[in-house]
Specification:
It comes from marine sediment metagenome. The chain contains three helices and five strands. It is α+β, with helices and mostly antiparallel strands and 98 residues long.
Length: 98
């Protein structure tokens, strides 16, 4: 079951606002729901972002001079967003799916 499905079963709708998950209606938010969102925030953000048609990942392999330099892990980003982040630090870096 997708993380968002649990929220729907509780009668809630979710929306991505930056790096946060906003739930409505507030009257249905229980402590269990709060803990669920806290534990599954990154997965929920990825699922919510997936609805815009652009593929996002939470980890990308950074390649430089043909060798793996590191793995970027963080908020769900598109290929182009990840490439921009990596090239800010290493202008000649390439990005691969991890």
């Amino acid at each position: 079951m997708a993380a968002i499905d649990y929220l729907r079963e509780q009668g809630l709708t979710a929306q991505r606002v930056g790096s946060r998950v906003r739930l409505k209606p507030k009257g249905l938010i229980t402590e269990d729901v709060r803990q669920y969102v806290k534990k599954h925030r990154l997965v929920l953000l990825a699922e919510l972002a997936a609805n815009d048609g652009e593929a996002r990942r939470m980890s990308w392999k950074v390649i430089r001079d043909g060798r793996a330099l590191c793995t970027m892990i963080g908020e769900p980003t598109t290929y182009h967003e990840a490439q921009e982040i990596a090239r800010w630090r290493w202008p000649d870096a390439e990005i691969l799916e991890n």
